[in-house]
Amino acid sequence: MKNRFRLARTDYARETEEQKIEPQKIFYLSVEGNVTEQQYFAGISKYREELGINGRIDVEILSRSSRDTYSAPKYVLELLEEYLRLRELGQERMIEEIPVDIAKAYGEEFIRTYLENPQHLPKKERSRFVQDLRKAGYDINYRKFLSTYKNKGDEFGILIDRDSQAHTEKEITECIEHCKKSGYHCYISNPCFEFWLLLHLSDVKEEYQSQMDKIQENKKVSHRHTFVSREVTRRAHHGKGGLNFEKNYLPHVLEAAERAKAFEQDDSRLAGCVGCNLWKLIGILRDF
Predict the structure, then answer these.
(1) DSSP letter, residue 172
(2) SS3 54
(3) How many CB atoms lie within 10 A of CB 148?
(4) At what angle do helices 73-89 and 140-148 cross, to 10 degrees?
(5) pLDDT reported for residue 204
(6) Do 274 and 262 touch, CB atoms closer than 8 A?
(7) Are 60 and 27 in contact (CB under 8 A)?
(8) In Å, how far are 44, 63, 70, 137, 170 from 282, measured between CA atoms?
(9) Burial environment of residue 202 by CB neighbours within 10 A (0 to 12, 13 to 18, 19 or more)
(10) What pLDDT is recorded for position 11?
């Protein structure tokens, strides 16, 4: 990887971010997709009360630039560990990771003031500083946000697809082992995240009994869809507005979690078997 600063989010391109109530526990999750997974978990976060999830716990999906298409399991893991390095560094020491040429151009005093009291700096200078950093691939406002919201009891995990067309079983197994050794949660959706969405929309075990081989192979069926993603789109009628979480998925989250239990549940076997263990995350959130 040429750029070790992958954490980035369009929402935080502006200097003034929307303030959110800090929960007592945050579940930080690194995912493969830049859009679908983000929309789904934003819905989980927004409708916590309706799902029986205590408002003191939340899910934060780690974001990266829309131009960042590195989505293989090792890169999903890499993004999580980039966040953990930032978390260990802390906002007060973020100056240490500012690209050297920009640090020299603006000086330590300016950067420390920006990190601690940005309103004390002229608006044009603040804006130019942020833009120079973004050109260098460093999103300072998003990193400030992430370094602000942290608790001792926070948990960390990754969500990866099996995607037999792109990822080998060995890659998935190595990720699972790394997560176990490091104390991270590892969530897998085989063959893809859309399988988890399909569980909201259908009793897959029953309705697709004769097509399980097609689900497992999940071949491309058009320039836009695999077999599973087409089935999800056909049932949910996804359009330009995205998932429409409130209508299509919110009423069926707990149902999907129960349906998932009818498939493979052993994490170590999910690399080779159809299934999804995201029901465990839903359980963790609801049990807090």
Answers:
(1) H
(2) coil
(3) 11
(4) 70
(5) 98
(6) no
(7) yes
(8) 9, 21, 26, 34, 27
(9) middle
(10) 59
Question: Rounded CA gap, 182 and 133, in Å?
Answer: 31
Sign of CA dihedral 240, 243, 246, 247: positive
For tokens 């176990």, the residue is: 180
Question: Which residue has 């829309």 as its token pair?
Answer: 66
pTM of the model: 0.91
**Cβ neighbours of residue 13 closer than 8 Å, sequence gap 6 or more:** 134, 139, 141
Give the span between the Cα atoms of 109 and 90, in whole angstroms: 18
pLDDT for the residue numbered 92? 87
The token duo for 254 is 């707990």
If you search the block for the tokens 């999903």, which residue do you land on?
Answer: 76
pLDDT band at 121 (very low <50, low <70, confident <90, very high): very high
Residue 18's pLDDT band (cuts 50, 70, 90):
very low
Model confidence at 239: pLDDT above 90: no
DSSP 266: -
CA gap 155, 80 in Å, rounded = 11
Beta bridge partners of 220: 226
